[in-house]
Each structure stands twice: as C-alpha cells, then as structure tokens.
Amino acid sequence: MRRDVRILLVGDDGVGKSTLITSLIKEQFIPNIQHVVPEVTIPPEVTPENVTTHIVDSSARPENAAQLELEIRKANVICIVYAVDDHATFERIPLYWLPYIKSLGVNIPIVLVGNKIDIRGEDVTNELLEEEILPIMTEFKEVETCVECSAKQSLNISEVFYFAQKAVLHPTAPLYDSREHVMKPECAAALERIFKLCDSDKDGALNDDELNEFQRKCFNAPLQQQELEGVKDVVQESDPEGLNDHGLTLSGFLFLHTLFIQKGRLETTWTVLRKFGYGDDLSLRDEFLCPPLDVPTADGVVELSSAGHAFFTDLFRKHDVDQDGALSPAELDDLFATSPGNPWVNPGAAAGSNGSAPTSAASPSSSTTLGPVVGPAALAATTAGFLDAALTNASGALTLQGFLSQWAMTTLLDYKTTLAYLAYLGYDGDTRQALKVLRRRRAAVVGGARRGTRSAFLCYVFGAAGAGKTALLRRFVDNPVADYYTQTTRPLAVVNAVEVKGSEVYLVLQEFGSKYESEVLTNRKRLEQCDVALFVYDSSDVNSFAYVAQQIKQLDSSIPCVIVATKSDLDLVQQRYEVPPDVFCRQLELDKPIHISVKDNIMADVYNVVSAVAMNPVSAIPKGKSRRPERSPLGRYLAITAAVGATAAVGFAVWRMYKSGELLKRF
C-alpha cells in the first residue's frame, strides 16, 4: 500500500480552489488570498488514512498551461472544482476538463467537487444532483464520486480531501463496474480465493468460528455474536442463497462485499484483499509471493522447516475428504484451487503473480534451472511427468509421503516456487518461517535461520544412454517400469524418504538425459547444487563403463561419487577400458561398483548408500581429485629435504648395524 498521496485541484478561475486549501489548513475562511497557493504537505499522523498527503493548487490561465500539464501528470488524484452558483463551470467538466485530462494519457481517479453551496438556493435536492452527476460518471469511468462543500462556511472540507485520499488508496475501478452496477470478475475471483482459504473445514460455507478467524486476520478483532447475527440477517434478507445450514456461502460473501462497495465502504473490501496479498491491480504482489530470503550463492541450501512440514501435512489432511490417506486427482485439484494450478503438472502454473508466461526450461543449463524463479519453470525440466516423480498408491492417488516428498524436492531445487505456493495456499504469517537455510555438506547455520541438520539431499545421476538410469529412478518411487531397457532422453527427477542410521532424509535423484549431461558436468555453478553424483553403467554393455570413467575424470574435484553397475540379471561382460571397474575404483579410493538389477528388484540398498554418502561426503571424494592444498615451492623443498634426510638416516643406521654384525644376527 502506498505511503503518500498527491492531490491536485483543477477547475475554472474563481471556483474557489485556493480557498478550499486554505480553509482546510487554517480551519477558517481566508478572503482575498493569492491566485495560486503553494503546495501543502500534511504529515501521515493527522490524516485519516495515515499517509503523507500533498495538496497542490493550479491555475487555469493560458500562461500557466505548461505548469498545469506537468502537475496533472504528477498527480495521484485530481479534484475538479466547480462553483454550484455558476452552472457554466459545471458544464465545462464533461466538455473540457475530463477530455483534456484524458488527452494527456493520464488515467487516475477523479473527484468532482461542488464549492459555494452556502450561496446556492434551497431548491436543489440530492435527486437533482444525482441526475446531473450520473451521466458524467457513466461516460467517464475515472470519476469516483462527487462531494459538495463550502470553503466559506467550512462545510465538508475535510470530506473533500478524505474522498480524494480514498480514491487513490481504495479505488473503485478495479472492484466495481459503475455502468453495469456489478462487481468486476477479477475482484470476484480474488474474493472467491479468499473465501476458499478461510473455509477451513472445506464444507463450502464459513461457520461462526471461520468468520471470526477471518475477522481476526483482516481487522484484528472478532465479531460479537449479535454482530454475526446482524450480518446473517442482512444476507438472508437480500440473498436467500447466501446462507445455508453450515454458515455463510460464497454467494453471501460476495453479496456483502458488493454491498460494502455500493455503500462507499471500499476500504473494507480493500483491507481484506490486501491482507491476503493483493495489490492495486488485483494480482498477488511480488513481495507477497516471493519475499527476499538470504541464501548464500556458493553453498546455501533451502529446506522445509518444521513449520513448513506441519503446514503441508495439515493441508493434505484437510483435503483428504474421504480420509483414505491419499489425494485423488479431484482432491488434488481442489487443494490447488487457490493457486495457478498444480506446480508439478503445469510447468507454467506459478510463472508470476501476473500470470505471465514462464521462461522456457528446455535446457537444464538454462537460467530457469540454475537461477531461482517464481514458478516451477525450474522444475519443468525435471518433473516432466508428475506420476514419474511421485509416490502414489495402487489407484494412482498421491500419498502423504509422496506429497511431502514433492515439496521437499521443490524446495531443494527451486525454493522460490515453494515460497509462492505457501502464499497461494494460505500459509498464515511470514512464509519464510516455513523454510530454513543451511550450508551444503555441513550443518552450519546461515544468517538468521534456525539451527538444524540437513534433511534433503540432491543426487545427480549420470551415465550412457541405455544404462538404466530412468529405471533406477522409477524404482525409487515404486513406479512400474514396462520396459526396463527402454532408452529415454528427457530429464527426470524423483524423490522419496530414506532412513539412514535411524534418521529419515529426503533424497532427490535427478537425471538430465544424455543430451545435456556434458553441459551439466562442465557447469560449475550447476554442480555446486548437488550433494553426490551417481554414475551408472550397464554391466552387460562392453562400452558402458568407459563412458562414466571419462565423466568422473572431468567431474569437479569436490563432488563425492557412487558407481552403480546395472542389469546384473544379464550376462556380465568385460568392459573395454584401460583398467577393470574395480581397479579404477581402487585407484581413486572409491568403493567398488554396486551391482543391481532393477528388473529382478535386487537393489543392494543403493538408495541408502547414496543417502549416507550425501550425509558424509568426505569418504567418497575420488583420491586424485580431492581439494588438498598444493604446496608452495618452499614447502616442496622442505618436504624433499626431509625425505632425503630420512633416507640418509635410515642408510646410516643400516651401515652401522652391518659393521657391528647386528644385521647378520637378525637373519
């Protein structure tokens, strides 16, 4: 919400623009003042809306035209003043002033101000005034309201500037169609989302407790029972479908806000909208969807906190209507009804608060997968098939473990998507509290994050096409594999919980397809995001190991490695490489390859092994590629000198033993 308002007064000469300003400031009528009074700034503490207000006077004389145009472009709201005793000044509003302002390309709220009502006859009624004003408001939608006042008698002076403030801070145009007298679809959609978020028991109505919680969130005070009943009576009288046995329905909720708008209480509806993150254009604000989070570029990692884990668990249970421990497609759709859509099915769902098109994520080395973006464009290259990466039951419904695992993976790969969806789905409070920031490969705390060890790890999976990477990933989530040896090239990521030494952690396995593997292996920024690299070769293919051996040689020096030999159900063949796989591993002080068969479900605890390495990576870093500090020339000299000295000392000792006969005695 803006913290300052600039009000410009325009109108024909002699209508009383300057006296309106002086009467407000001096609280009395000052005759014979200068033609244009200086700009006035009113501090926020003395304004009803608690905003700094700038009030600017103007002249309609031809010699001041350039200055007038400049001020019109700077204004947030314009008050067009006319004299009620001079009908010509009123007629010039639709004939000159409104077209002139529009011709400058300015689209801001307009308030019509009728001054000098103290000298108008008594025969003017509200009905006559409405007949005159309504055609103007119908033709010019920017006109918010009309206020009549008297600078001389200080009548309605404060109201003029109050309504001008309201026109900026609580505008009508985004909410209501004044011509058709109906709420605009964008406003109705926003209020429907708010209604669904407040309907905690998901019965399609707000009961008394839910209404009071809504009141507390928006206005910091619950309604008294008598007030609640009064609200229901108003709804029941005008909208029979607005109430049912459970409480206030969506129809009744929308009716109340339409009534607030029609009665001029726009601040009520705007307060509700802003409490739920909406901006003046009725889109969710960027700072609401993605508040800044301090994550170290080099080794920062983001995970769900206990608060975030509890929120998603509670969200799952609320939407598990049939209480079968899983979310059906319909239940899942209902869960995401307050968001742009399922982030794992629709890659463009959270492209941004304005629904803009997502950035392409075709290549895993593109900025959408390396850099944080609001929306799951970063996940599009990895969760190409939602069911491929999710834990589902026999009927294909998403289990609680699968739901939580998906959020663990989303947060690890693109925490900004999680932040946005926490806001979309109704997290109460600062969404950053649902996340925690840690350092990769150690449990040190970053910034103001709460202390705790890591619970989610990322493993990149490499290997030649046809080695069995995709089958290995699908087995991890018990996804049936029709053809275990079918080659795939599209990226894929899966996630599941793994128990390691009594602790449960989430492991994300991510493959990129042979098309992009070399890009990832040479992209240092991308490699910094992974905790362990899993190299897969086909033990039945003579050329398969040579492929991963070359990949390991070009791998960054700090990445721990695990090597897996797949298809042990087929005949083992000798690999065409300079040394056998076991010798290669021994030379690099790595564990021997783990032999598995996805087809026969012989997995040798490979997922536990990978998780254990991610938690304790030091032992799995290839020997020749560890980050040992290189010695300086002086250090090398001292080391060589020490070695030569040690050799000489040993030689001298042996010679003395030979001379004394001691050496012969030992034999």
Automatic annotation (TrEMBL):
Q: How does the entry describe its membrane topology?
A: Single-pass type IV membrane protein
Location within or outside the cell:
Mitochondrion outer membrane
One Gene Ontology term of the biological-process aspect is: mitochondrion organization
Q: Describe the location of the Miro domain by residue ranges.
A: 2-170, 454-616
State which Enzyme Commission number(s) the record gives: 3.6.5.-
The answer to keyword GTP-binding applying to this record is yes
Q: Which PROSITE patterns match?
A: EF_HAND_1, EF_HAND_2, MIRO, RAB, RAS
Q: Which SMART domains match?
A: EFh (SM00054), RAB (SM00175), RAS (SM00173), RHO (SM00174)
Q: Give the UniProt entry's GO cellular component terms.
A: mitochondrial outer membrane
Query: Domain of life of the organism in this record?
Result: Eukaryota
Extract the InterPro entries matched here: EF-hand-dom_pair, EF_Hand_1_Ca_BS, EF_hand_assoc_1, EF_hand_assoc_2, EF_hand_dom, Miro, Miro-EF-hand_domain, MIRO_dom
Q: Which Pfam families match?
A: EF_assoc_1 (PF08355), EF_assoc_2 (PF08356), Ras (PF00071)
State which residue ranges cross the membrane: 637-658
GO MF term set: calcium ion binding; GTP binding; GTPase activity
Q: Which UniProt keywords apply?
A: Calcium, GTP-binding, Hydrolase, Membrane, Metal-binding, Mitochondrion, Mitochondrion outer membrane, Nucleotide-binding, Repeat, Transmembrane, Transmembrane helix
Q: What does this protein do?
A: Mitochondrial GTPase involved in mitochondrial trafficking. Probably involved in control of anterograde transport of mitochondria and their subcellular distribution.
Family affiliation: Belongs to the mitochondrial Rho GTPase family.
Q: Which NCBIfam families match?
A: small_GTP
Question: Per its record, how is this protein called by name?
Answer: Mitochondrial Rho GTPase
What is the species of this protein?
Answer: Allomyces macrogynus (strain ATCC 38327)
